[in-house]
Amino acid sequence: MTDTSAAAAGTPYGTLPPASPLPQRRPVSLPRLAQMREAGEKITMLTAYDATFAAVADAAGVECILVGDSLGMVCQGLPSTVGVALDTMAYHTESVVRGLQRVQGTAWVVADLPFASYHESREQALRSASRLMQAGAHMVKLEGGGWTAPTVQFLVERGIPVCAHLGLTPQTVHALGGYRVQGKGDQAAQQLRRHALELQDAGAAMLVLEMVPAVLASDLTQALPRCHTIGIGAGSGTAGQVLVMHDMLGINLGKNPKFVRDFMQGAGSVRGAIEAYVQAVKNGSFPDNAQHAW
Ligand code: KIV
User: Fold this and answer.
1) How far apart are CA 273 and CA 263, in angstroms?
2) What is the pLDDT of residues 190-222, one digit of tens each?
3) Ligand 1 contacts CB of residue 112 (under 6 A)
4) What is the Å distance from ligand 1's center to 185 Cα?
5) 123 belongs to the catalytic site
6) pLDDT band at 23 (very low <50, low <70, confident <90, very high)
7) Atom 6 in ligand 1: which residue has the minimum CA distance?
8) Mutate-to-test residue for ligand 1 from 62, 112, 206, 209, highest number of ligand atoms within 8 A of CB
9) How far, in Å, from the CA of 201 to the mean position of ligand 1?
10) How far is CA 136 from CA 73, 90, 172, in A?
């Protein structure tokens, strides 16, 4: 007999499957990430901005999902991340978290505090961070070193896990003069190192290092036992790696940066591409310092 039920027909518009009552995997947590680091297992992070891609990334084994303000460029068509609003970050964070909940996802969700949402005062940062935590994030990320350390401490003391971001910090692209490698030369490297140590002391549990020389990123990783370094264009010596999902799927509307590999090539499906990314990070074949780093 032909099954004419809605289930047999499939669900429209990428609808996620209904939640099953028996979660199979343990949720990713800060202690779990610390255990992975201690065991020498690389941490994988990938951006996602909506329910479906978040669920696919989770199913493919990504431990951390970053609701990055790169959504300004990827989803909103903005020229940089500077124009992204806190409301927009909250909207996308809610979407990602709902997607994960629908599939009993286990990923750790990091949400970006956008430009000008934490710059005014520590109190403003707390209000903005609370908004993203109430949208379902497990951790917030903010850019910059030096002036940000007291803000990080203020948030961490109030129970908000913080990921810092040094090196190429896209929210300050205009001040930096473009998307360029940072931390080159002794003075710049020393300043980056000082900022990273201050952020660890302030309680940051994670640190994205973007477009910094591989040797420096590897050295910082050794110097930061309590703060997991997550590299993007920072070589293979960091505790983990992150990429923008659309870049690694080869659907960047411009030219992919040097540090990206197109994992869609030969993968056959989005899930296959993300699984290949996870595997390559775990087995150390991505990034390849000769090709993807400085
Ligand atoms: O916004 C983002 O996607 C990011 C990554 C590039 C690390 O910050």
Assistant:
1) 5
2) 999 999 999 999 999 999 999 999 999 999 999
3) yes
4) 24
5) no
6) low
7) 244
8) 112
9) 23
10) 23, 9, 27
Residue nearest to atom 2 of ligand 1 (CA): 68
Q: Find all residues with CB under 8 Å of 129, minimum gap 6, and list them.
A: 113, 118, 140, 155, 160, 162
The answer to whether the pTM exceeds 0.70 is yes
**What is the full DSSP assignment across the chain?**
----SHHHH--STTPPPPPPS---SPPP-HHHHHHHHHTTPPEEEEE--SHHHHHHHHHTT-SEEEE-TTHHHHTT--SSGGG--HHHHHHHHHHHHHHHHHTT--PEEEEEPPTTSSSS-HHHHHHHHHHHHHTT-SEEEEE-SSTTHHHHHHHHHTT--EEEEEES-GGGHHHHTSS---S-SHHHHHHHHHHHHHHHHHT-SEEEEES--HHHHHHHHHH-TTSEEEEESS-S-SSEEEE-HHHHTT--SSPPPTT---TTTTT-SHHHHHHHHHHHHHTT-SS-HHHH--
Residue 166 in tokens: 């040094």
